[in-house]
Design brief:
Helices cover about 65% and strands about 0% of the residues. It has about 70 residues and is an all-alpha fold. The relative contact order is 0.10.
Length: about 70
């Protein structure tokens, strides 16, 4: 049984740019050095073992949450 979420997920995946022969796609530059670094780290971890991808995702999450918290206190 397919859910609405699964349908949207497939739609989103279809809209992603195809990479050339497995090349790592470059993340967009945000202008925030810390965020750009963690997004680059996350992108480069996509071909790594699962544990390394999870760690990179956790670092990205922490960095993004930190920036959002900074905005809330401004």
């Amino acid at each position: 049984m397919s859910t609405e979420f699964e349908g949207r997920e497939a739609e989103q995946a279809a809209s992603l740019p195809a990479d050339a022969a497995g090349a790592t796609l470059e993340p967009p530059a945000t202008g925030d050095g810390a965020i750009d670094a963690v997004l680059t780290d996350l992108a480069s971890a996509q071909d790594a073992p699962l544990a390394e991808r999870v760690e990179a995702g956790e670092r990205a999450l922490a960095a993004l949450q930190s920036r959002l918290n900074d905005l809330g206190g401004a």
